[in-house]
Amino acid sequence: MKLPMDPLLKQPEGKTLEFKRDLSSPRNVLKTVVAFANSAGGRLVIGVDDARQVVGVADPLDAEERICNLIADGISPRLVPSVELLGVNQYTVLVVEVFPSSARPHYLNSQGPAQGVYVRLGSSNRQAGPDWIAETRRAAAGLVFDEQPMPDLGTDDLDLAAIARLFGPERTVDEKALQTLKLLRLEQGRPVPTQGAVLLFGKEREQHFPDAWVQCGRFRGLDKVDIFDQHEVHAHLPDAVEQIELFLKKHAFKTARFGAMRREDVWSIPLAMLRETIVNALVHSDYAQRGAPIRVAFFDDRIDIESPGLLLPGMTIDDMKSGVSRIRNPVIARVFRELGLTEQWGSGIRRIFGEAARLGLPEPVIAEIATGLRLSIYLGRHHAPGPPTSDDHPVSGDKHADPSRLESRLESRLESRLAAKVALLLREQTAGKAELAKALGHATVSGELHKQVRRLLELGIIEMTLPDRPQSRLQKYRLTDRGGRMLKGTED
User: Fold this and answer.
1) Domain shared by 167 and 230, yes or no
2) Disordered: where is this region (predicted)?
3) Closest among 341, 388, 348 to 366, alpha carbons compared
């Protein structure tokens, strides 16, 4: 199969792509092959330098034979990637395509099965720890971590009162129901809790899983240098969702929006997105991993949620964003779904990104980190920690001292928070789309910003400064007289 090289050369190195100049460091080449096979597969292109210039391989046939021998002699279990020579201008490059392997974990023979296992973390190869190796071997044997029984424990080790409270009086949660939910399993004729049951409702959960708790922190600024407030959440996992929300609300502020029939509180942080992200972390964390709890960090510009556990083999961040899902903890996932904390499996990440676009917020960022995954939710406005300021709460009698109330009224009228923000910005001065995006705190001009600008134009609320050249790079927008009257009517 011929691979198009030009698009490949323009891609950055990452989880499924790496470039090497030559085979002068065979051990590093083998690490990459092993990491690809243990993760989501990938392509190793040999004959491209660090500047992404094609330099080719000196003796193509010899290089092809050498890489095949290195892989055959240096990696176990046996791995057979696709190796192909491709012509690029006057050069020949070697492309090694590695597929996700069902025989994982693969390892370097020179280091052995305990030390020679590597996984792909971003654009680098990382030595896998014993927890990851154990999880991979369980998967190969068809075993799921949170379905495994804990034979030394009994039903009395579960908080049955909490289970009854969460499921409510309309559902009977007896021993049979607990077995259906895989919270109990019969072992030698005796019902014993599963690891998922203890993680969800165990009376002494952290005695068995020391890192199964949530660390919350509020930091000054944009990094973890100066902590302002912190809180530890040790509640049952379903109850942890609300406790984490309460911590986040403690460091946010709210304003009132008055609709036709009732008052509604509007929070300064996107609670629906954050709740979805928190639930996703609680459901998909690797609780077999030791060394780090789930972490929720509130900064001035964003909220990071970090969950332990690398992506499951075969998964990439792009897969997550497109809605592909693999459940690490099916027992926990099912209970959360039964309790109404999650909806359709696999739709959470897509809803998070969709909500960000709807609210006109910067696109969330998912990153693989040393301990697992981090999902960053960027805020629509800067949040400084400490007591509420006059910007956060209305000042009676001064309509210009209450921009949040005006924005809420505009949002209700325009049915879009982003449209309201754009109209308010253009009341102050003319601006192009790039300037609007910057003022809104967005990294780029989003599709939603294009949409709302177009809608405001159609409504006659704003107009172009260069109407005869709608596509001009110098195009700016300003509020129309009609738009000005609408804003004045909203203020009054």
Assistant:
1) no
2) 384-410
3) 348
Residue 371 sits in the same domain as residue 272:
yes
Q: Is residue 283 located within the same domain as residue 415? A: no
Domain containing 346 equals 214-378
The pLDDT of residue 260: 44
Reference 115, options 101, 130, 125, 96; nearest CA is 130
Tell me: do 486 and 419 sit in the same domain: yes
Provide the token pair at 83. 């190796």
Same-domain check for residues 353 and 220: yes
Task: Decide if 282 contacts 241 (C-beta within 8 A).
Answer: yes
Residues 114 and 258 in one domain: no
pLDDT of residue 265: 66
Beta bridge partners of 220: 226
Give the per-residue pLDDT at 261. Answer: 45
One domain, residues 353 and 218: yes
What span, in angstroms and rounded, lies between the C-alpha atoms of 152 and 206?
A: 16
Q: For residues 272 and 309, is the Cβ–Cβ distance under 8 A?
A: no
Mean pLDDT by 10 residues, the chain (492 residues): 65 91 93 95 93 90 95 95 91 94 93 95 90 86 92 96 91 92 94 97 95 95 92 96 94 68 72 93 92 94 94 86 86 93 72 90 91 92 66 37 63 82 86 88 86 90 88 86 79 54
pTM confidence score: 0.71
The answer to whether position 390 is within a domain reads no
Token pair listed for 458: 């159609």
Residues 245 and 192 in one domain: no
Residue 393: the pLDDT is: 40
